[in-house]
C-alpha cells in the first residue's frame, strides 16, 4: 500500500478514501486528531461522534506503550509528543489529548515549548481544564473527589486547575493504579474488579465524608461506571468526561471559526494503534460501542 492508503483505511474503499484525502488536502481541511495511551480516549471520541457527527476524526491509541499512568513525566511527555507529531503528520491541525495522564504531564510543555517550534497555527488541547471548569456547578458541599492514575494525581493538575476556577473547593484525590490495567485487559466487568473498586472507593471516602461529587479523571474509567455506582452511596454524583469535553470542543470551535473552517466534515473515522490491530478492534468496539477497523502504525 502507498503510505496514505495505509494511514487512512476505514469503512470506505481505499480508492474512494484516497480521493477524499486528496480533496481534503486541496481544500486545506483536515480531521481532528484524538489521542490516548490506549482505549480510554474512545469514551471521549464516542461522545464527539454522537454530538458532532459531521466532523472527521483520526484516533491514535499508543497501546504498545500503555498504560502511561505510572510512567515518569519525561516518558509520558516524550511518548505523547511523538503521537501528537504523528497526528500532525497525518494532517491534523487540532489534536485532543483524550487522556488525563498525557494532559497532566505533557500538555503544557507541548503547548508552550513544542507548538511554537512545530507550527504555531496548530493546536493541542487536553481534558483536565474543561473538566475543572464545570465542577463548581456540580458540588453543593464544595468537597470533590477525583479518581485518576498515579501520574495524574501526583502531577497535582486537578488541584492546580480547580484552584484557578473554584478556590473554595476542597479536592480529595485517590490514585487507582489497577483500574487502567483492569480495563485494558478486559477485566472491568469481571468479579475480580470488585475488590479494587471497593478498595479505592473506601479509601477516597475515608478522606472526607462530605464529598458529594466524584470526577472520573481518567478516560478509561467510564467502563467501570456500573461497578463504581454499585459501591458508592447513591447521593454522590459521578462525573465522566465525555460530555464535558465535547461541550468544550464545540465551544472552542465556535469561538475559533478559523480552526473550525480547517476541520473537514465528511463523517469519516480512522483508527490507528501502535499494537496489534486484531486486539485493538476487539477491545475498541466495547469502548466505542460500534465496530472498529484499525490500522497499525509504528512510532
Ligand atoms: N486514559 C488515560 C487517562 O485518562 C489512561 C492512562 C494510562 O495509560 O494509564 O489518564
Features:
15 helices, alpha/beta, binds D-glutamic acid, single chain, 299 residues, six-stranded parallel β-sheet, disordered N terminus, four-stranded parallel β-sheet, 10 strands
Sheet having the most strands: 6 strands, parallel
Q: What Rg, in angstroms, do the CA atoms define?
A: 19 Å
What portion of the residues fall into strands of 2 or more residues? 5-15%
Distance between the amino and carboxyl termini: 18 Å
SSE topology string: HHEHEHEHHEHEHHEHHEHEHHEHE
How large is the count of helical segments?
Answer: 15
List unreliable stretches of 5+ residues: 1-6
Major sheet: arrangement of strands: 4-3-1-2-9-10
Would you tell me the structural class of the helices and strands?
Answer: alpha/beta
Give the averaged pLDDT, no decimals: 92
Could you walk me through the main structural features you see in this protein, from its secondary elements to its overall organization?
The chain is globular and about 60 Å long. The strands form 2 sheets. A 6-stranded parallel β-sheet has the order 4-3-1-2-9-10, sandwiched between helices. A 4-stranded parallel β-sheet has the order 6-5-7-8, with helices on both faces. Helix 3 crosses helix 13 and helix 7 (128-138) crosses helix 9 (157-165). The model is unreliable at 1-6 (pLDDT under 50). It has helices spanning 3-7, 14-27, 41-51, 73-89, 100-105, 107-118, 128-138, 150-155, 157-165, 179-184, 191-207, 225-231, 242-255, 257-262, 277-288, and strands at 32-36, 57-61, 94-97, 123-125, 143-148, 170-175, 213-216, 237-239, 269-273, 294-296. The chain starts with a helix and ends with a strand. Strand 1, helix 3 (41-51) and strand 2 (57-61) form a beta-alpha-beta unit. The protein has 299 residues and is α/β, with parallel strands linked by helices. Helices cover 51% and strands 15% of the residues. Residues 36-38, 40, 66-69, 99-101, 149, 152, 180, 218-220 line the site of D-glutamic acid. The site of D-glutamic acid (DGL) has 17 residues, from helix 5.
Amino acid at each position: 500500500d502507498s503510505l496514505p492508503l495505509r494511514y487512512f483505511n476505514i469503512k470506505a474503499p481505499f480508492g474512494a478514501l484516497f480521493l477524499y484525502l486528496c480533496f481534503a488536502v486541496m481544500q486545506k481541511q483536515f480531521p481532528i486528531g484524538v489521542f490516548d495511551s490506549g482505549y480510554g480516549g474512545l469514551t471521549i471520541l464516542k461522545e464527539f461522534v454522537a454530538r458532532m457527527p459531521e466532523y472527521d476524526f483520526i484516533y491514535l491509541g499508543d497501546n504498545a506503550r500503555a498504560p502511561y499512568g505510572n510512567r515518569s513525566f519525561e516518558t509520558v511527555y516524550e511518548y505523547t509528543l511523538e503521537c501528537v507529531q504523528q497526528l500532525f503528520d497525518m494532517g491534523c491541525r487540532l489534536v485532543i489529548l483524550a487522556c488525563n495522564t498525557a494532559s497532566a504531564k505533557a500538555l503544557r510543555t507541548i503547548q508552550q515549548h513544542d507548538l511554537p517550534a512545530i507550527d504555531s497555527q496548530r493546536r493541542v488541547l487536553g481534558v483536565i481544564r474543561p473538566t475543572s471548569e464545570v465542577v463548581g456547578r456540580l458540588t453543593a458541599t464544595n468537597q470533590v473527589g477525583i479518581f485518576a492514575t498515579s501520574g495524574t494525581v501526583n502531577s497535582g493538575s486537578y488541584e492546580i486547575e480547580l484552584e484557578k476556577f473554584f478556590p473554595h473547593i476542597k479536592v480529595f484525590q485517590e490514585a487507582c493504579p489497577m483500574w487502567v490495567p483492569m480495563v485494558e485487559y478486559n477485566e472491568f466487568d469481571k468479579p475480580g474488579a470488585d475488590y479494587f473498586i471497593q478498595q479505592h472507593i473506601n479509601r477516597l471516602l475515608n478522606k472526607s465524608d462530605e464529598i458529594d461529587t466524584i470526577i472520573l479523571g481518567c478516560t478509561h474509567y467510564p467502563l467501570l461506571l456500573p461497578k463504581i455506582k454499585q459501591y458508592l452511596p447513591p447521593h454522590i454524583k459521578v462525573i465522566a468526561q465525555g460530555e464535558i469535553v465535547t461541550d468544550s470542543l464545540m465551544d472552542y470551535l465556535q469561538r475559533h471559526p478559523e480552526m473550525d473552517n480547517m476541520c473537514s466534515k465528511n463523517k469519516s473515522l480512522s483508527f490507528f494503534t501502535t499494537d496489534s490491530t486484531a486486539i485493538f478492534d476487539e477491545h475498541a468496539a466495547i469502548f466505542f460501542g460500534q465496530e472498529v477497523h484499525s490500522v497499525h502504525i509504528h512510532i
